[in-house]
Specification:
This protein is mainly beta and 96 residues long. The radius of gyration is 12 Å and the shape is globular.
Length: 96
């Protein structure tokens, strides 16, 4: 994450495979990995990482977050930063 964009802005996972998603915020502002449908369709090892009613993962400026998850349902999911989607901080997630 950097100010106003995700790098990369397209993520690909395979359903039924466990992953550690490593999020880094290299921006000067707080950013959120907002993907409510994707997160709801995944098993999370530590659901306490989810904020805003389970819709996103908040990463402070200069901080990192490791999210252990297993996507369950194939499909394409929307990814945004809830505070910066208006400025183009969007992407997508594909689960094959």
């Amino acid at each position: 994450m950097i100010d106003d964009k995700f790098e990369p802005d397209h993520l690909i996972f395979h359903h039924g495979v466990p992953y550690r998603l490593h999020l880094e915020n290299h921006g000067k502002e707080l950013h959120e990995f907002t993907a409510p449908e994707f997160l709801a369709a995944s098993v999370m090892r530590d659901p306490a990482l989810l904020k805003n009613g389970g819709q996103d993962i908040v990463v402070q400026p200069g901080a990192t977050a490791d999210v252990d998850l297993e996507p369950l349902n194939p499909g394409t999911y929307k990814l945004t930063c809830a505070d910066h989607d208006w400025d183009g901080m969007t992407g997508d997630i594909t689960v094959e």
